[in-house]
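Invent a record, attention on C-alpha cells:
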Amino acid sequence: MKVIVLLSTYNGEKFLQSQLDSILAQDLCNNAEILIFVRDDGSSDNTQNILQEYKKQKNLNWYTGVNIKPAKSFWHLLNHCPDADYYAFCDQDDIWFTDKLSRAVNTIQSLSNQNQPILYCSSVTVTDASLNPIKNNTRNKVYTDFAHALIYSLAPGCTFVFNHYAKNLLTSYDIDNNYVIMHDWLVHKIIAMMGIVLYDHNPTMYYRQHGNNVIGATKGGVKSFFTKLNRMLTIDRRVRSLSAKSLLNVYYEYIDDDVKDILNMVSSYYKEKKLKQKFLQSTLFSVGGIRDIYLKLLIHMDLI
C-alpha cells in the first residue's frame, strides 16, 4: 500500500520541521510506503533548504515554482504526483497525531464498496502557535451529503485523505479554466457529488492557529457573524453559485438528474424568481437554528 502526502509550502521555516517529523512518525509507516510530495510556492526563507535536507531521508520529494497561492499549488500537486492507493492533504504548520493516516485508511477500508471516490476527514484539536489546545473543533451533527457540501464546509482540508478513484475524479477539473476559491472546498464538493464522504469525530491532529494562517478556525458569536457576512459581501460573493456552475459544466455527463437540479438551482437562483423561491423553500440544505436563517438571508441578498 502506498500513501502520498501532498504538501504545499510557502515561507514555512518556523513550523515545517515539526510537521514533517509528525508525518514521518506515523504508525502506518510500519505497514505502508509513505511519500511526502511537496510543491514549494516560491518561498524566500529557509523552507527550500529544510525540504532539501529531508529529501535525503528518501521519504520526501519536492519541487518549486512561481507563487500561485494555495488552491492552485495543491491542484498542481494533484496533477503531478505519482500514483498511489491514498492521498492526504497536509499544511506546513500543524502536527499530526501518530495514528492520523492509519485511522483514515482503516475507516475507508471498512466500507464494503471501496471501488468509488471516497473522502475521509476528521475533527481537529485547535491550538495556539505554541500548541496549547484551545478547543476540539468537532460537530455534534454532521452532514456528509452533496447538498450540504455545496453550501457548508465539513472539516479543514488538512484532515482530508482520499482514494485513487477520488484523485482521478478530481484531476478532471481544470482550475485554470473553472472556478475555485480553495482546493479543499472544491474537493469536498466533487467527492460528495459523485462518491462518499466520511467524517471522524475524533481529532487526528493539532491545528495550529497563528498570525500567518491562510484560513483558520473561527470563533462563534456576533462578531464572527458579521465577519462572515462581510466576506460574503466582498471576497466570497456568490462563491457557492459560481462553484455550482463550474461543477455542472465539468461533470454534467457523469451526474444524475437530481444532482443537476440542485446545481442548476444554486447556480442560477439569482437570475430566476422561481428558482430562488425553490431554493428558499428547500429543506435539502437545512442544518437548523440560526444558520438556516443566515442561509435564507444570503439567498435573499443574492450572495450565496
Remarks:
- The radius of gyration is 19 Å.
- Residues 239-251 form the longest helix (13 residues).
- The first strand starts at residue 2 and ends at 9.
- The mean pLDDT is 92.
